[in-house]
Amino acid sequence: MSIVITGANGKLGSLIINELLQIISADQIVACVRNPDKAEVFVKQGIEVRLCDYDQPESLGQAFAGASKLLIISSSNQDDTIRFRQHAHVIEAAKKAKVGHLLFTSFAFLGAGDIAPSHLYLATEHAIQTTGIPYTFLRNSLYTDFVGVLGLEAALATGELRIYPGEWKFNTVTRHDLAQGIAVVLSQPGHENKTYELTAPRSWTFDDLKTALYELSGKSVHVRQDPQIQNWIYGFLSKIDTSSTSTDLEKLIGGPVTSLKESLKQMMAI
Ligand SMILES: NC(=O)c1ccc[n+]([C@@H]2O[C@H](COP(=O)([O-])OP(=O)(O)OC[C@H]3O[C@@H](n4cnc5c(N)ncnc54)[C@H](OP(=O)(O)O)[C@@H]3O)[C@@H](O)[C@H]2O)c1
């Protein structure tokens, strides 16, 4: 068995490899990276490193050779048209390399695809299905660390967290939880042609955030709705489904996902 992972130098990719190393041996893993010079850690762990640049289709055939499973980590390019072209390069190369099973880190609860991020993820899922290769769609929720752009340190200092008005609910999980679930899928049989919604089983609200911050820091934060707030994240949040929940991830990891409070504790110096 050879499990090939693209975007391996990224935050999610490296966490997945760490999780995989606890389940399978290093010689069953191939780390595909855009910049091999930054992949020294994998070499030291006995993991084969291969060049894989989504913008260089000629690099991909060699990268995917012999893969029984290929995990495609979605590109981090900001332009969805470019991202789709990059994903298409990967999918075409996977088909030519006769990869046994294609897995893709998609996005949770894409709905009917009538919102911007859904077009890219659904288009990629459909493109994967055109290959006829068994697939698994790992639809990741928003990462919990999105809270890092909400200004929580400042809120603790001033006692006020300004948010854009709305009935916000969040199904987020940590990259670490996602990595654990994805490693399980990669290392086990029986996940072919399945779609997993990898979210928390219960959503949290800004009131829950306020409570968690209080329990961790002893400081009260007033949450104030402010339509004038200037923060790009609310534009993005309003385009995605952050409230639907699923037990798929907890079933895969065989236990509870990391709580909001624990996630905040790991993220912030409080
Ligand atoms: N669910 C969420 O909340 C959320 C949030 C942010 C992003 N995402 C998506 O999830 C993916 C993984 O997240 P992450 O936290 O691991 O992101 P990340 O740390 O930015 O990692 C992205 C990886 O993709 C690689 N990459 C980018 N362009 C590439 C190309 N042209 N060819 C080959 N590799 C390329 C990067 O390579 P280098 O190391 O060389 O830069 C990096 O290793 C992201 O790429 C993005 O599509 C999801």
TrEMBL record:
It comes from the Bacteria. Residues 7-189 form the NAD(P)-binding domain. Transmembrane segments: none annotated. Pfam families: NAD_binding_10 (PF13460). This is NAD(P)-dependent oxidoreductase. It comes from Paenibacillus ferrarius.
